[in-house]
Specification:
Blueprint: E1 2-10, H1 14-22, H2 24-30, E2 36-37, E3 44-45, E4 52-59, E5 66-77, E6 81-88, E7 91-102, E8 106-116, H3 118-140
Antiparallel strand pairs: 1-8, 2-4, 3-4, 4-5, 5-6, 6-7, 7-8
Helix pairs in contact: 1-2
Length: 141
Amino acid sequence: MTDLRITRVFDAPRHLVYRAFTDPDQLAAWFGPPGWSVPRDTIELDPRPGGAERFTMVNDDDPTMMSPVNAIFVDVIENELIVGEEQYEGVTMRMRLEFHDEPGGRTRLELTQGPYTPEFLDGATEGWGGSFKKLDVLLTA
């Protein structure tokens, strides 16, 4: 078991990148790898310690293929930090998002998520990469 670690710089100020993770309308617009979407009516976000994060990713070609997320926010500092946990097959999956200012009004996001088995690590890395490409488009719109 290992953690996924991704560092990504976005061409947008920190508060806008943070809001993309905490605003249901924005999350619906970008989350999910290519071929997957998150219907707005499945999203429940209460970004505070103890608050819920629930939504369902749906396969665009086969809507019967779904991937639900049912997490609890553990730590939230507006525009700086989001930490959440989700139980998955008897394992506590933890996600930590750190938002940092970069020169030129950009934002460095540091994502840590896991633990993953080696066979799921590549898929998770690829999924986040595809999602972040959609987030780039949203942030520059």
